[in-house]
Design goal:
The structure holds 3 protein chains of 3 kinds.
Chain A (H helix, E strand, L loop, with lengths): L8 E7 L6 E8 L3 H12 L7 E6 L11 H9 L19
Antiparallel strand pairs in A: 1-2, 1-3
Chain B lengths: L20 H11 L12 H20 L1 H5 L8 H26 L5 H9 L17 H21 L5 H29 L3 H20 L9 H8 L7 H19 L9 E3 L4 E3 L5 H11 L3 H14 L1 H21 L1
Antiparallel strand pairs in B: 1-2
Helix pairs in contact in B: 2-4, 4-7, 6-7, 6-8, 6-10, 7-8
Chain C lengths: L2 H24 L8 H29 L5 H6 L10 H4 L5 H23 L4 H29 L3 H14 L11 H8 L10 H14 L22 H10 L1 H5 L6
Helix pairs in contact in C: 1-2, 1-8, 2-6, 5-6, 5-7, 5-9, 6-9
Classes of the chains: A alpha+beta, B mainly alpha, C mainly alpha.
Chain lengths: 96, 330, 253
């Protein structure tokens, strides 16, 4: 009795405020892209969370595989100077 | 809780010596507080226990719409109607987030739904109790959501990434649920004698079922020990129940209502309230399908699912026609 | 007709439409065909309840008898309600609910759009806010009517049956009486009859896309917005909706 017509799964990305990037907020089911956008509006912006919505069918997302983790991310991890907390600024210098 | 008596592997926690290399590496990651993500290696027992737990939690949210939904069309003011509707809608949303989290483990929402409707999967015992007066909307928000939050706040730290993220979103949204319930209770407790009577009656009926939400003592449960080692369960049932009682009793006193437990008293030495255990035989009967509303709840869910089949199929068929037309045009 | 009395009647019509339709749509909560639709229907109902608070709140102010929006919603009997017969019709299946929603939205949005540029400042403000919500409702309901009309054989048959059932109620919104005449004269609201053309155009376009046939004109069911003859359904809606206020008079909730 399994329903053969289960709607595809979509991943939802929302831009919370003008000027910032879209961020993954969750997923939902919808029969097509237009309805996925509308469902995303109804499901994920119930509290005024968004100004722009992207949806993409989950099966179209290409992802890095967990075993790549080392080669993909470790080079960045050693470049700690990219992060502001790397630099020790005396309090007297004021907010930076 | 929303997920009660979830069975894990049943074999107890393996010692490090018994673990395979993969299992050891996995356990190290969990112990170090790292999140496990969908594509990461995980023990089969971890995956299956999580599906059962997240699925049961999701089902509880969906079935949990029904007892409160029962009063949406009878809410006494426009504002109360809007608040209650928004709250029950949130529960649908929370069910949706949790089903999506479960789907990352390789099970579909439809499969989970079939498992609920066939009785293979359970939902929280609490939703098999009837909501008989408007004060029950207060009691459900105050006690049931209050008990749920006790469990859900620590679960934000659970080891499985998608589950943890769903819980963070849910906890953020639920912060108003318990407060709206208590607000209803306050209004009733300070209202007319009839309203006060309703409030006391609601507390009488929902007190023990709320204590049951945490499940029976699991101090000796092998399932719980395994789940705690995997960080998909954070506290024991007794810890959470005690915390709930300690928090709730002063709130009841503030309302001027009496907790229906003659043996309830503050224990100076323990620094906690002593309280009576609920009737666990009733709990097991409710879990087995013999609660006051089990039949209605399942019938309502089955009807929604069956009656909705033509809608789901119709919209899918239309989407396929559009896709085909687009391909033909290209 | 005294302009203030006409204004009060007109506001009841706007507010009772959203009150009764919001009530009907809220009945779906927990019972919809799929979770995403359950959530979307609740959003529609919440918008309608919010609009009700504004319309009936203003109605109470205009009346000047100290009645609040809640007093008007919970303490009038059926004959004092001024909603269209369409909105008190039962939900039926999901298709019937969406068809009712579409037919309402296709009238409601242009009406609100006109009110928003009308001569009554308070009404224009409420209408401008409500129009944004109604535009979204219309998008959704039109798209669902199209998707289900042009879906499977079964969904098509159900949508055609829903249209046939509800079409006789679609003359009422465009009939004018002395309340409408007073509003038109005061520059507050459009003459209802002038809105029929645009409505028929929208309905025609959506039904074409949905492969549904608008029925031949049949006997028009009216009596809701005048309050002269509601359907039997309204009394049952009020029995539920007003129960607590009636059973415990004077209690605060």
């Amino acid at each position: 009795m399994t329903d053969r017509t289960e709607w595809p799964l979509w991943e939802v990305f929302i831009r919370g405020q003008h000027g910032i990037s879209h961020r993954h907020v969750g997923s939902l089911h919808a029969p097509d892209a237009e309805k996925a956008v509308r469902n995303a509006r109804d499901v994920y912006t119930r509290r005024n969370e968004g100004v722009s919505i992207w949806v993409v069918e989950a099966r179209h997302i290409a992802a890095s595989s967990p075993s790549d983790k080392g080669p993909l991310y470790e080079p960045a991890r050693s470049k700690v100077y990219r992060h502001p907390t790397f630099f020790d600024i005396p309090d007297e210098a004021g907010h930076m | 809780m929303y997920a009660q008596m979830v069975q894990s592997t049943g074999k107890g926690v393996k010692s490090r010596a018994e673990m395979t290399e993969d299992e050891r590496r996995f356990q190290d990651r969990v112990d170090a507080g790292e999140k496990i993500e969908p594509k990461d290696w995980m023990p089969e027992g971890y995956r299956r226990t999580l599906i059962r737990q997240i699925g049961q939690h999701a089902h509880s949210e969906i079935v949990g719409q029904l007892p409160e939904g029962n009063w949406i069309t009878r809410a006494p003011t426009l504002e109360r109607k809007a608040i209650l509707l928004a709250k029950v809608q949130d529960e649908a949303g929370h069910g949706l987030y949790l089903y999506c989290a479960a789907e990352t483990l390789g099970v579909s929402r439809d499969e989970l739904t079939e498992d609920l409707l066939s009785g293979r999967m359970k939902y929280s015992s609490i939703f098999n109790y009837p909501t008989l007066t408007w004060a029950d909307m207060g009691a459900v928000g105050w006690l049931v959501d209050g008990a749920a939050i006790m469990n859900q706040v620590p679960l934000q730290r659970t080891s499985y990434g998608p589950y943890s993220r769903a819980m963070i979103r849910i906890c953020k949204e639920e912060s108003f649920h318990q407060r709206q319930g208590y607000d209803i209770m306050l209004k009733m407790a300070r209202g007319t004698p009839a309203q006060k009577r309703m409030a006391q009656d609601a507390l009488n009926r929902f007190w023990y079922p709320s204590l049951m939400m945490f499940g029976p003592s699991d101090a000796d449960s092998v399932h719980s020990a395994q789940s705690m080692a995997w960080k998909i369960k954070i506290n024991t049932n007794d810890e959470l129940r005690q915390k709930f009682v300690d928090q709730t009793v002063p709130q009841a006193e503030f309302l001027g209502l009496t907790v229906p437990d003659p043996d309830l008293k503050w224990n100076e030495e323990r620094g906690h309230y002593d309280f009576s255990e609920p009737d666990w035989s009733e709990f097991f009967a409710v879990i087995a399908g013999e609660g006051p509303c089990n039949a209605e709840r399942m019938a309502a869910r089955r009807k929604a699912w069956d009656d909705g089949a033509w809608v789901r199929e119709g919209l899918m068929a239309h989407a396929e026609k559009k896709r085909a037309a687009k391909v033909a045009a290209e | 007709m005294d302009e203030n009395a006409a204004l009060f009647e007109f506001l009841l019509r706007m507010g009772d439409n959203t009150l009764i339709l919001g009530h009907r749509v809220s009945e779906w909560c927990g019972h919809a065909p799929v979770l995403e639709e359950d959530i979307a229907l609740a959003n529609t109902a919440l918008d309608l309840i919010g609009q009700t608070q504004m319309w009936l709140g203003l109605a109470g102010e205009i009346e000047g008898q100290g009645r609040s929006a809640d007093d008007l919603a919970f303490l009038r009997d059926a004959w004092d309600f001024r909603n269209l017969l369409l909105v008190e019709q039962p939900n039926g299946d999901f298709g019937q609910t969406m068809m009712r929603q579409f037919l309402f939205d296709a009238w409601h949005l242009p009406m609100l759009t006109m009110l928003a540029v009308g001569g009554h400042e308070r009404i224009a403000e409420i209408a401008a806010k409500a129009a944004k919500e109604a535009a979204y409702h219309l998008d959704r309901s039109a798209d669902l009517v199209i998707g289900l009309g042009d879906g499977t054989e079964e969904s098509h048959a159900r949508m055609q049956a829903a249209l046939d059932l509800l079409w006789p109620y679609m003359a009422e919104p465009f009939e004018a009486d002395e309340v409408d005449a007073a509003m038109t004269e005061a520059g507050v609201a459009p003459d209802p009859g002038t809105m029929r053309g645009a409505f028929m155009e929208k309905v025609g376009a959506v039904m074409d896309a949905a492969t549904l046939t608008v029925p031949e004109r049949r006997f028009a069911q009216t009596g809701g917005k005048s309050g002269v003859r509601h359907s039997e359904h309204l009394g049952h809606i009020l029995t539920q909706m007003q129960w607590l206020q009636r059973a415990y008079p004077g209690a605060a909730w």
